Every structure is written in C-alpha cells, then in structure tokens.
Amino acid sequence: MSEVLLDVRHLKKYFPSGDRNRPVKAVDDISFQIFRGETLGVVGESGCGKSTTGRLALNLMQPTEGEIRFEGRRLDVMRGKTMREMRKQMQIIFQDPYASLDPRKTVFQTLAEPFRIHNREMSREEIHREVTRLIGCVGLRPEHIYRYPHEFSGGQRQRVGIARAIALNPKFVVCDEPVSALDVSIQAQVINLLQDIKQEYNLTYMFISHDLRIIKHLCDRVMVMYLGTVVEIGSKEAIYERRRHPYTQALLSAIPNIRQTDTGKRILLTGDIPSPINPPSGCPFHPRCRYCMDVCKREKPALREMEDGTRVACHLELV
Amino acid sequence: MEMTAKKRTSLFKTDGWKRFRKNKLALVGTALICILILAAVFAPLITQNDPYESLKNESGAILKNASPAESGTVLGTDSVGRDEFSRLVYAARVSLSVGLVSVGISTIVGVLVGAVAGYFGGRADMILMRTVDVVNCFPVMFLIIIIATILKPSIYNIMVIMGLCNWTATARLVRGEILRVREMEYVQAAISLGASSGRIIFSHVIPNVIAPIIVEATLQMAHAVLTEASLSYLGVGVQLPTASWGNMLMNANNLATLTTRPWQWVPAGTCILLSVLSINFIGDGLRDAFDVKQKK
C-alpha cells in the first residue's frame, strides 16, 4: 500500500476561453498521490475538473503546468514512441459506452487492436485466443465477438470497454464514471466486475464518480474536488465519518437515505458553482460556505495534514 | 498479420454485399455501369466499323448523315459519314475514364488534405483551409479552358485539371467529419491504447467518415462526366476525331440535326444520362453497404 504509483504535483490545466487573459481554470494547482494497489475515489460536482484530472493523469491531455510521475518517470514530458509504449501500463474506462466503442468495428476488431499495436508478432489464432479469454473475463460469451457495438446493451458495451482496458495487463486504470450511464440494476453488476478484475489483475484504480455510495463501496481513499481544486483527501473512513471540510459535509449530507426521514439534517448549499473562468478570491468555496470568515475571502487555504493523515484545505480550526 | 487482414476484408465484404443487394436501384445501376464498362473495354469486338473512317456506299460516295436504315448500321452515320454506333462505344472509353481518373485524383487529394487539416488542426488546418478557399475561388470552367488551350487539349490534361480543381468540396467535407469523429471517445481510447496517428486516422477515423466520402465521390463522378461533356461540347475538351459523348453532342448544335437526325444526338445524350444516374444509384447503395447499423 505504501509504494507510490502515480505522483501528481502542482498540476494545472487551463483551457482558452473567449478572453485571452482569463482562461478556464479546469484544474488549478492540485497535488496527490495514488498508491499501488489502492482505489482512489474522486468526487465532486459536475464541472469541478474530475474528468480532466483523470485524463491528465494518463497524459491524454497536456497539462498547462505541473508534473506527473508514473513509477518515478515523468509522464508529462514523454512524447511519441516512448509515450505509446508507456500506455500499455495505464488504461481508461469511459463513461459513455455508446461513444467509447468504434461503431464500425466488431468486438473482435476492437479487442484485437491492443495486441495489433503492441504485440505485432501475434498470429491471428493467438489473438483470437486472447480475445476469447478477455471476453470471458468480463462475462460475455464467445459468440459475441463477431457482433457490432450497436447490437449490445449499455451494460454489455461497458463490459467490452472494460475488456479493452485490461487487454494489455495494465497496472493503472482510470475509471471515468464507468457506471453513470447505466441502469441502476446494471451498475451493481459492472461494479462487482470492476472489483473482481482489480483482484485478478492487481490493478490500481482512480475511480471518478459523482455517486457517493459507489465511491464508499469501492474506494480505499477519497479525494473531494471543488472548482478545480482539492478540498479534502484522505482515507474513506476519515472522509465519510469525520466530514471535516464544510463542502464534504454538504456533499455527504446529500446522499439519499431511506432510513433517515429527517431532512433537516441535510445541508443545502445556496447558489451555483462559480465559474472556473472567474473563481472567487481566497477559498473557492467561500461564497457558499456556512462558516465563511474574513480570512476565507482573502486567502486561499493550503492543504493541511490532520493527525490521521487526511489533508484538508480549510481555514477552520480542524483536527 | 496477412491472414487476419484477408479474413477481415472478406467477412466485411459479405456483410456489405448483403446490405448493398437490398438496394435494387443500386443493383440496376451497377449492372448498367458494368455493361457500359464492358462495352468500352471490348469496343473492337462489338463494333463492325472503324469509328474514325467514313463509310462509303457501293459507288464510293461518303454516306453523310445517313439514317440507320440508309447506312445499314445500328445508329446511322454522322455529318462526315462515320459510324455513330462505333463512335458511341469508343466514346464510352473516353468519357468513363475521364470521370474515373479525375474523381480518383480529386478524392485522394481531398481526403488527404481534409484528414490532415481536421486531425492535426492548428496551423496545418489554417494553411490548408485557406488553400481550399483560394482554389475554390478559381472559376473552374474558365480555368480549364485556359489551361487546356495553353497545354493543348487532350484527355489526360482534362483528367488532371478536373481532378486538381474539384478536390475542395471533398476536403471540406472530410475535415468537418474528422473534427466530429476526432472528439469521439473511441478515438481517445485508441490514443490511450498507444495507437499511432496513422493508425488512428486510417483505422478509426476514415472508416467512420467513408460513407459521406463515397456519396460525394459518386456525385462528383457524375459531375465529371457532365463537365467533360460540356468541355468537349465547347471544343476545349476531347478533340476530334477522338470521340467522347460530349463532342458527339456538339454535332447537335443546329436545328436540322435536332429535328431531322435524332440518331446523331439521342444515343450520346442517353448514355450520359444513364451513366450519371447509375453512378448516383451505386453511391446510394454503397452508403447502405458501409452502414453497419443496417439490419442484415
């Protein structure tokens, strides 16, 4: 658990907006580590930079600033062939199973592609064997491999997406809201599949989701993001039990609970999430925070380490 | 590798063929075009007279403007006594090959330019698209006439000039489609698998934009046959005595021919009409064939 697999430091991603001097600060100076074998959950509202962070972590996008190290090697400066070789070790599972499979390719062609790219000496028979094995791993039947994506249900397509991600035996997989587009009944199956596969392949996950119950079920540690910044990062227990940051409190109080009839406990945030083009001064959360103090409007809080290792970005006196 | 490639194409072909077969008009079009192409290829076998020699009667007089009955040929003779049927068949060679080659050139250029501009974007896109704008500004007909005059009119010049003037529409189309497909998550997935740019373009992007390219190419093919006809009609295209459907129509530019000698212009006009229609139908069928979502 203690070995760092992915080390992200001072990562920034600004997208150009209409105004040249005011870019969209999708990700604004975040640092975090992912340890080998763990599942790091990333939660936050829409537009808080979760997916951008995931794609930056795989170098699918160029960061504006910052360093990304995978097993100690700088990913953000890698280019061309070195990077393509590196990609064997890290994969992504996408949110939308309808957009993430090439509609013109059969499942066989889709799943054969990783081998055609990286193991060019494999014969068709070998590739066929591997594809059949993969399709079995994700719970589909061998006769499915000559079908096209539109002949499958959403859940089945997502299984194909998962099979593609594990084809090259990666070490690290970014799951970018892999079940958000699926029916609730299918979500559980796919989540269990992701857990089984993690065991079998010794994977490390970065699991992006806005579904707090799934994060709780699946993750070892949780990172809470708000407006391109990390507000709190720590073990699942610390995040869900201690609820130190006011934003984490509000977020977690929004989990629906059938046993809890008293809705008075729910913390309602007023206002919308501010624009990442023009983020608030000081703490990005201060306009919506119940405990807002003067210092919050002036100074952006740095992440402070608590006694149990959780790191929180807040000016409040926390332990 | 080789074996897998073979298996893949043959599998694709059978599925595609099944879908193509469902479009009856496309089948008719294919049959017609095949007949025209076969006739063009085997022209010497199916014609009795030389297309460049005037026919004479027993007394040695040239059979000018003779009707089919008078001359004993299938479609009569033209104003200098040459066999219209022979000319029609030999003209198919010229007209069809001008269409095929010029569309081949314009489609290849257009796809390459559009793919590079759309996929790489940025400065490459800017430069290439401004080039498209410039080429688009050329008055094509006028340009062809000038170049054909300078370079001396010949079929090959016509093919190349038409090819190099007509790629802009394809380039724009391909660029737009690629901008759409490039952002699809399956392309992101291919990048994250470590696929090279070439592989992504040829294996994921182009197959997903092929349907509009095919339709565009068939429309252009029809257009090219018509352009060749117009150029030849104007006298700067295929030069006499070489026959093309266009310059055969040129003979019909007077009232006497139009009213009293239909055999001199109806067959050539019909051939242009049928080939253009057939090509459009084939394009329709090909679009269906490339659409994997259609029920088999």
Summarize the structure.
The complex is a heterodimer of chains A (319) and B (296). Chain A is of the alpha/beta class. Chain A contains 10 helices and 12 strands.
Give the N-terminus to C-terminus distance of chain A in angstroms. 24 Å
Radius of gyration of chain A: 21 Å
- Report the sheet with the most strands of chain B, covering strand number, pairing sense and barrel closure: none
**SSE run of chain B:** HHHHHHHHHHHHHH
- The percent range for strand residues of chain A is 15-25%
Q: Superfamily at the CATH H level of chain B?
A: MetI-like
Helix content of chain A: 25-40%
The rough form of chain A would be described as: globular
**Oligomeric form:** heterodimer
**Structural class, from secondary structure content of chain B?**
mainly alpha
The CATH class of chain B: Mainly Alpha
Reported for the largest beta sheet of chain A, the result is: 8 strands, mixed
Mean pLDDT of chain B: 80
- Poorly predicted ranges of chain A: none
Strand order of the largest sheet of chain A: 6-7-8-3-9-10-12-11
Write the layout of secondary structure elements.
The complex is a heterodimer of chains A (319) and B (296).
Chain A: E1 4-15, E2 24-35, E3 39-43, H1 50-57, E4 65-70, E5 73-74, H2 80-86, E6 90-93, H3 107-118, H4 124-137, H5 154-166, E7 172-176, H6 184-201, E8 204-208, H7 212-218, E9 221-226, E10 229-235, H8 236-242, H9 246-253, H10 294-298, E11 303-305, E12 311-313
Parallel strand pairs in A: 3-8, 3-9, 6-7, 7-8
Antiparallel strand pairs in A: 1-2, 1-4, 4-5, 9-10, 10-12, 11-12
Helix pairs in contact in A: 3-4, 5-6
Chain B: H1 2-21, H2 24-41, H3 43-46, H4 68-71, H5 84-120, H6 122-137, H7 140-150, H8 155-165, H9 167-182, H10 185-193, H11 197-234, H12 245-250, H13 255-260, H14 266-290
Helix pairs in contact in B: 1-14, 2-5, 2-14, 5-6, 5-8, 5-9, 5-11, 7-8, 9-11, 10-11, 11-14
